[in-house]
Design goal:
This protein is mostly beta strands. It has four helices and 14 strands. Strand 13 and strand 14 form a beta hairpin. The protein is globular.
């Protein structure tokens, strides 16, 4: 079974620089899923299911990509109501609509979603990335989908103007609650290397004076998406 989808055995590192230095890291599996392969994965992989319970599950309701809906989400109840309304809408349909709002047409290209899956029904997924390619496998854009503890989500778009070699770079004011230690109007500084055999994602935080105070990295190595590798 030849798949575009894969797994990255990765390590997340968080390092706070101010007001007091502190750092920690943890291991994680990141799934790099071709959105056109989800139903195939559901049929071929024993430990993977689409919109149903399993050891690992890909659930459309865990992703909220339309900005008009994302902006209306302010409470758990609100998220629940919207999730019910969009339960029949796939992630592929939503992200395609979002991309069109940014004048990006996927056509015969592909969308690769770097994300955490639900594990035994539990979802912890602070950030996902949609890497979008044209029919020649050339990068078109990236969309970062960031979640917070209030179950709110916000999208950040990176187009060709932000592409530098194999890396999408952009510093952008977040206007979004992430942590009580980070102001709403601080800045995210994204450095998103297009995943290949290795994974290299970096998001730093800068204050309004331009001083970096937080570093986060996600680095890993690619593995085939197989039943055996899902249990390692």
């Amino acid at each position: 079974m030849n798949l575009n989808s894969s797994i990255y055995s990765a390590k997340v590192m968080h390092h706070r620089l101010a007001p007091k230095k502190h750092s920690f890291w943890y291991n994680v599996y990141m799934f790099y899923v071709d959105l056109d392969e989800i139903e195939t994965l559901d049929k071929k992989l024993r430990w993977f299911s689409y919109n149903s319970f399993n050891l690992f599950s890909f659930r459309d309701k865990d992703h909220l990509v339309l900005e008009t809906k994302a902006e209306s989400v302010r409470t758990k109840e609100g998220l629940s109501q919207i999730s019910n309304l969009k339960s029949h809408i796939s992630v592929k349909q939503q992200i395609t609509a979002y991309l069109k709002s940014h004048n990006v047409e996927i056509g015969n290209g592909k969308i690769m979603l770097l994300t955490n899956l639900s594990v035994l029904g539990y979802n912890f997924n602070p950030v996902s990335f949609y890497f979008c390619f044209d029919e020649n496998n050339l990068p078109l854009c990236v969309v970062a989908e960031i979640s917070n503890t209030y179950h709110e989500m916000k999208m950040f778009f990176f187009g060709k103007d932000e592409l530098d070699g194999n890396t999408f770079r952009q510093r952008i004011q977040k206007h979004f609650y992430v942590s009580p230690f980070i102001d709403l109007d601080d800045f995210f500084d994204f450095n998103l290397v297009i995943p290949t055999e290795s994974l290299d994602i970096k998001i730093d935080d800068y204050d309004k004076q331009g001083k970096r105070f937080f570093i986060s990295t996600l680095k890993g190595e690619k593995k085939p998406l197989t039943n055996a590798n899902m249990l390692l």
